[in-house]
Amino acid sequence: MKKHIPSWHDDEVKALSELALGFFEREVVAHNEKWDAQHRIDRAVWIEAGKLGLLCCSIPEEYGGGGGTFAHDLAVFEAQGYAGDLALGISVHSGIVAHYILEYGTEEQKKTWLPGMATGEILGAIGMTEPGAGSDLKAIKTTAIRDGDDYVVNGSKTFITNGASADVIVLAVKTDPKAGAKGVALLIVDLRDCPGFAVGRVLDKVGQHGADTSELSFTDVRVPVSNLLGEEGQGFGQLMAQLVQERLIIGAQASGAMTRAVEDTVAYTKSRQAFGHSLFEFQNTAFELAECQTIARTCAVFLDHCIEAHLRGELDPSEAAMVKYWLTEQQCAVIDRCVQLHGGYGYMREYLIARMYEDARVQKIYAGANEVMKGIIAKSL
Q1: CATH of range 11-122; options 1.10.260.40, 3.30.300.30, 3.40.50.1980, 1.10.540.10
Q2: Which residue ranges does the record assign to the Acyl-CoA dehydrogenase/oxidase C-terminal domain (predicted)?
């Protein structure tokens, strides 16, 4: 099977992708049972990722990052999807949190947080979703009320990736609870010595069992006004702008996962015998995989188009919504068909395809549910 070579993979990006794939297979996937049991991945894995240059690849070198383009980060995230891992919250840490600080932070904020994030010594999270507010971010109720040189934060967040492990969180709050979207702001909250901050449950999910996904609460937490990202009232616009990149990340992970699912299933059906023939020799099997391969390849080509547009600064919200919606829908469909071709073994978690099946489903929900993506696309028509 001829491999797809992404148009945005120059020699450096290709080498980084190969390095990342080896890291995920060696340090993450090989220890899935341990991560599943403890619902988090050890900090030593993050430190190793930092040593290899896999964290904050597109953050400038002056702030400790790799100094590359976002293509370098995307190569890591795509390799993660191909490896069959969605437990390590590296895309949130490197692709989202670091870029909020880079894009909107002061020089002092960048120098305070980004170098440690690049080494893995500081782990980042972003706090948007609440028990009563998901895709509708302007409905958040967590407040940050000014009191002298501090904000006093009260509220709760849920479904927070890296939540129980994070050292720092970019927190979406309402500085003016009556102003709707215009009352939203983003605060950098240092969680390492934070009276009033508490981690609730590490959530028991259908998939991504090794991922630290937690409930968080804030009770009269005092945050210096100097930790504000940008200005009061700018938070909603900042969130909307950065979600374009977040949705592209999910598309990259989905594409990597589809490619791996098809490759593994081709190999399995060629080795598995039934009725005196390999499964692949049956026309239904061959045709199913021909369709899955076509879907995976066309999705990869569309992803390439969107990545190239993003690298030029031209990816608009509607195309970002398309790549997130379409690739995650196809990820779930292709992996489901691959599970079927594995038969009973496809339902056994010792097989990678079963874990990929579990992990894929939430891709259609986070970073804006796919129904919301269709609404964004429809508005552009």
Answers
A1: 1.10.540.10
A2: 233-381
